[in-house]
């Protein structure tokens, strides 16, 4: 009898499964009609406000019948993903993500160089001045005196944590300790851990664009949704605070700031930065502040660390400041609880950053030579020269105040930055990145001004010539 009861229940379950499939098919048909109507009306596939209503309604309905929120979020996440895929069929859309496109372009240029082609690399965001000699000496010394390199703490080398805390405490008047600092293998990993440990499925993240595409890919990996806050050249890349507040009303968990900005070189003023912090407090939004380009600034750069009453995560790296991109070492600063959650990511995925690399990073902080300062000053001078050369062409741009990038707009109507970038590579052996990698900026280019001065000058003159030909 019990076997018969079990078989009956299983038949009933299969019937419910069939009903679910039929309901999904009906939903697909409705979504397809909505997609066609949006296309005729020239509307975006994703409307964040409507999406938020749909998510909240689904979760509320689930709660009424006793389904927990975590499962409901996973379920609606799959449903929304299918809706987006259904509505984008037949539309011209990007095949790969922005971050993937960046990596593909970089790999293409690396392959060309390995085959012997001489390129002028204005595409790659690394300083390319010599790593300070103190860093190299300390790495060699540590390896010579350490016959056996063992596991280390997942939090990081205590001496390095202390040195970072002392430096930031002096600079910003903070009272940071080891429990507020976590060492990572590169800034990208720090950004990923910050986002992954803060978001739940379908949580929203506000990103001020143009922006480094890794933010978007980290959010996607965590199952989050992007709320883009675009800025414009006409506004000197300042953030529209009204538009930002409207976005924060959609209840994003995080707002991502990159100041100085990659790719524009914009540095937010202290007043504007303060107003953004006030909005973040008002709407209880976590501020993820990527400040890796601070030491390349020609103007004062406000920091999230100056606002201790804001929920925030500060990220910085040794890559840009000390020309240590290949060493892969960075750090995050946050509350003790946030750092503990991020530490579990490090423990699970890589155990710890190798101590030899952390010893080298500590040497960079203690270095009293001018090696890194000299390298950064050279890049600033090249940046000024690059702007002078660009002004001779059919471009317009906001002179960068920080970082080592220029983000010029091509004045020619209807130009496609992706096609133009390919043309520059194929005909003139110059690598640049199209603005579409950083947001909806199809007539912009990003130029990284880190090659030797003669190469930068030659590269930009080739760009100007190519634009004249175009």
CATH superfamily of the largest domain: Type I PLP-dependent aspartate aminotransferase-like (Major domain)
H/E order of the elements? HHHHEHHEHEHEHEHEEHEHHHEEEHEEEH
The main sheet comes to: 7 strands, mixed
The largest beta-sheet arranges its strands as 2-8-7-6-5-3-4
Question: How many individual domains?
Answer: 3
What is the CATH level 1 assignment of the largest domain?
A: Alpha Beta
Point out poorly predicted stretches: 92-96
Strand segment count: 14
The number of helical runs is: 16
Which band does the percent of strand residues land in? 5-15%
Shape: globular
Distance linking N and C termini? 82 Å
Q: What is the residue-mean pLDDT, rounded to a whole number?
A: 92
Rg from Cα: 25 Å
Structural class by secondary-structure content: alpha/beta
Residue share in helix: 40-55%
Descriptive report:
The structure is a single chain. With 470 residues, the chain is an alpha/beta fold. It has three domains: 24-88, Chorismate Mutase Domain, subunit A (Up-down Bundle), CATH 1.20.59; 98-123 and 371-469, Aspartate Aminotransferase, domain 1 (Alpha-Beta Complex), CATH 3.90.1150.10; 133-366, 3-Layer(aba) Sandwich (Aspartate Aminotransferase, domain 2). It has 16 helices and 14 strands. A seven-stranded mixed beta sheet has the order 2-8-7-6-5-3-4, with helices on both faces. A three-stranded antiparallel beta sheet has the order 10-14-13. It has a two-stranded parallel sheet with strand order 1-12. Strand 5, helix 10 and strand 6 form a beta-alpha-beta unit. The longest helix is centred in the N-terminal third of the chain and has 39 residues, at 2-40. The termini are far apart. Mean pLDDT is 92; it is low at 92-96.
